[in-house]
Fold:
Amino acid sequence: MVPRITLRGIQKYYSASSAPAVKDLDLDIDDGEFLCILGPSGCGKTTTLRMIAGLEHPTSGEIQVGDQVVDSVEKGVYVPPEKRNMGFVFQSYALWPHLTVQDNVEFGLELRNVDRATRKAAADEVLNKLGIAKYRDRYPSDLSGGQQQRVALARMLVVQPSVILMDEPLSNLDAKLRLEMRAELKRIHLETKATILFVTHDQWEAMTLASVIAVMNEGTLQQLGSPDDIYNHPRNRFVAEFVGNPPINFVEFAADETSALSTSMQKYMDGVRPGHGVDAVGIRPESIRLLSSGGDTPNTAYVGQATVTSIMPTGGSWIVELVANEQRLFATTNTVPDVKAGDNVMFWVEQESLHLFDGNGNRLPDVDMLRELPEGKYYREQNVVSSVDHTA
Ligand SMILES: Nc1ncnc2c1ncn2[C@@H]1O[C@H](COP(=O)(O)OP(=O)(O)OP(=O)(O)O)[C@@H](O)[C@H]1O
Ligand SMILES: [Mg+2]
Structure:
């Protein structure tokens, strides 16, 4: 598929003296993709979306939509937002205060000279879908924040844009309504096949919605991949830690931070460290299995001992805090744990559930592949063998 939206070498400085809000950003977004831009506050999500919308200029670089360059300082091209055929809902959604909900939603259609009956039918459909038809005669000032947010969504959706940009559009909704709106957005995406760019700092929201997630930190793209990729093959420690709740556990191998647990794991991994540059092992909480809960332990698994220090029910699942060789680990389970605080337990982790990272925080291949590498070679990036000796 031809990428529908392309960003090349995008830099954004709000002022010459400050750090860039967005740095060296290359992004290809395919037609019909549901892309979530995910990252902590201030990482450049809104800035990226506003540049794609045409509300903000990149300092350098090029943005293309379809075959058309819409922004390029170098080429002196700039296509204004209203000519980009995109619909957007931004963090600060401005509804027309002097128009009712119904009129707010119909407004975009009126601008497009759609006749009254068609306008009304289209607005009714979206208002019903988003569960706000009952507020149709109210003015925005008489609505709650969450209701206003849904009106802003309705107003954008009613004109059926082929590209939809949304910046935290569900932030004011309670948990149940948020989930319902997410399901509705997914349905709308399936029905309309629109390309959707959705900004959120909520990793769970991104995982549930996206076909592709772009994880950003400090203005830089950290990883672009499917939710499965991002969760199961995080490219670096930042991504590994940002996605997942409770967060991934790290066992540090660096000399000044080793614990008895890391010594035992290094022994298990047998010869991998230090020649190949493993600096830390990440273990997702659900990958830690308590032996007491039964089942076979694969003979390639890491098996350790720990003391249960706390059990925290979360309603339907449990977080178990363990201390293994003086190191705290969090495990999760979906079945009632048959252990209690103070118990000594055995736990195991399958070899393929160990995420290895080098000293720069970049992901390394798994244990088996590293074992096969000659001493003195280590992986610099995924699948690229470098001859740099990490121990030197
Ligand atoms: N108009 C502006 N003038 C100067 N600096 C700005 C402006 N807008 C954003 N910034 C800075 O650019 C960086 C990125 O901001 P941006 O709004 O893109 O972050 P964000 O990822 O959307 O964060 P949040 O999740 O809090 O909305 C921040 O450091 C911010 O302070
Ligand atoms: Mg923002």
Q: What stands out?
A: Residues 261 and 327 are 7 Å apart (CA to CA).
